[in-house]
Amino acid sequence: MRERIPHEVVASVLAGATAFIGGNALHLPTWAIFISWAGMFLLGAKPTLRNATRLWAAMPIGSAFGLVIVLLDQRFGTVLGAGQAAQNTVLAVLILVVNCALMYTGRTKLFGLVPGMFLGFASFFATCFGGFGFDPGNAWAACLSVVAMNALGPVFAYLSRRLTFARADANATVPDASASASARATVPDASASAAVPDPTTASAEPPVAARV
Fold it and tell me: Model's pTM, two decimal places?
């Protein structure tokens, strides 16, 4: 395919357009668009609806598991004490349990794209603790914000290819069927060569008249 507009130019224009999405009062994490955008191309050189659907299913689940960890940590983070070591211990246990649940969820057919879940998982934590979202510091607001931005990534990936207005290359070479046929004709026929008598074996057996 021959691109009428270079993919690099189209992708850069789309990247610049994200400034109008995040540069407002909602303070949305537009960088999360690039996470899932890159994820689409990790799944294949050509963005497809099937791969987009896989990411759209997996990433929100990963963010939801991240939300569960934050909410549980807010509720039980000091159950062993207010010391840093005690809080770290609680957090480690929470991550262990919830992460195991995430990994086992990946065994299902619908949420089988485990790397996609971890893209959403990591994006949520970056949004929550980075102060992004329409209500900074609110875990629920962070989850909703990052899910929306992650969902735009596959759309931008598709547009980055579609807007190149690629067309078939007229100079593409097509295999010559006649050349292939002539090449097959030059291959020696094994059955024909087997029918030719071998002079060495013929001379090894004396004629019938000589044996009488």
Answer: 0.77
